[in-house]
Design goal:
The chain is α+β, with helices and mostly antiparallel strands. The chain has 2 domains: 114 residues, 3-Layer(aba) Sandwich (Rossmann fold), CATH 3.40.50; 138 residues, Distorted Sandwich (Hnrnp arginine n-methyltransferase1), CATH 2.70.160.11. The strands form 4 sheets. Strands 6, 9, 10, 11, 13, 14 and 15 form a 7-stranded antiparallel β-sheet that branches. A 5-stranded parallel β-sheet has the order 3-2-1-4-5, with helices on both faces. Strands 12-16-17 form a 3-stranded antiparallel β-sheet. Helix 5 links the parallel strand 2 and strand 3. The chain starts with a helix and ends in a 25-residue tail after the last strand. It comes from Massilia niabensis. One of its GO terms (biological process) is methylation. Keywords: Methyltransferase, Transferase. This is Methyltransferase domain-containing protein.
Length: 316
């Protein structure tokens, strides 16, 4: 019988189907960003650990410079596949593919870089935060400090109010939607600029609880019926250039239970709370959006209160 954690893992990203990993190999944005970031961070002679290696491609990137790479994967089908693929590629012999649970694994020696790509939009479903935080504790207990460099180094998350089309050939269905970041969808109308709601810095302690309450000044009339969640992974920081190497997840839009008709100038207050690694419905259940009104606001009105302005950000 599966224990509680194993049972949850089956549903929350620990056994992503093999074909999904094949699709990730064909994702040029992801591949190019990680190849560039790993090429910047990993130097000759370094030891590298990858937690959740999948097909082994990120370990392959690291092996082009590293002395040794430990690639940990829990799915036995992917362990076989990663070993097969790495044997076909230059420097694949530097990578040891280990069948183990990333929640428990500790390398036999200190490492310089830890790569962990268990990332879902809004840090939901997959166990990035839990795996890295558990690893930090084990690593410090065994080897002491300093901790290795983690990749990604940080995650920046934002939320944006939308009018989203939910009619599919005349069939109305308010569903969760995932959109590519470089494609304009005619059924998606942005009602205000995105606001940053959380920044996770893996160099320090990361709390799994993510909670936010903020406001948006609506920029155009429409029906606010969805919130778009944007997740930018800061794979590598280039201080000498004053820039970063980033990878942007697909956008995720979640329908609101109660749509709001809005006009330009309305102030909308949004609130939500969830834990990293939990399900999408857990975030959906916490979503709240309404007109921000002061004490003099009449019932059903929408007079804007004097609320702190949310931080806005550009995600390229």
């Amino acid at each position: 019988m599966l224990n509680e954690r194993d049972n949850e893992s089956c549903y929350l990203g620990q056994f992503i189907p093999v074909h999904y990993h094949h699709n990730m190999l064909m994702d040029k944005n992801r591949m190019n960003a990680f190849q560039a970031a790993i090429g910047h961070a990993v130097r000759p002679g370094m030891k590298v650990l990858e937690l959740g290696g999948g097909t082994g491609v990120l370990s392959y990137f690291a092996a082009q410079q590293a002395e040794r790479v430990y690639c940990v994967e829990f799915n036995p089908d992917l362990v076989v596949e990663a070993r097969r693929f790495l044997a076909m590629n230059p420097n694949g012999h530097k990578v040891e593919v280990i069948h183990a649970d990333a929640f428990d694994y500790l390398p036999p020696e200190p490492v310089d870089v830890v790569i962990c790509e268990m990332i879902h939009v809004a840090m939901l479903r997959e166990k990035q935060v839990a795996v890295i935080e558990a690893f930090k504790g084990r690593y410090l207990a065994r080897f002491g400090g300093p901790l290795p460099l983690f990749m990604p180094e940080a995650v920046v998350m934002a939320v944006q109010p939308l009018q989203q089309d939910y009619a599919f050939n005349g069939f109305y269905a308010p569903i969760v939607q995932f959109h590519e970041t470089n494609v304009a969808y005619p059924g998606t109308i942005e009602l205000a600029a995105p606001a940053v709601y959380s920044v996770l810095d893996f160099a320090g302690p990361v709390d799994s609880l993510i909670a936010w309450r903020g406001s948006f000044a609506i920029e155009r009339a429409g029906t606010l019926n969805a919130l778009r969640f944007v997740t930018k992974n800061v794979l590598s920081i280039l201080p000498q250039l004053g820039s970063t190497i980033d990878w942007l997840n697909h956008y995720m839009s979640l329908p609101l239970a109660r749509p709001l008709d809005v006009v330009a100038g309305d102030v909308i207050e949004v609130a939500f709370e969830y834990r990293a690694g939990t399900s999408i419905p857990s975030l959906q259940a916490s979503l709240r959006a309404g007109f921000a009104c002061d004490a003099a606001c009449s019932e059903g009105g929408r007079t804007a209160a004097s609320l702190p302005a949310a931080r806005t950000a550009e995600f390229a």
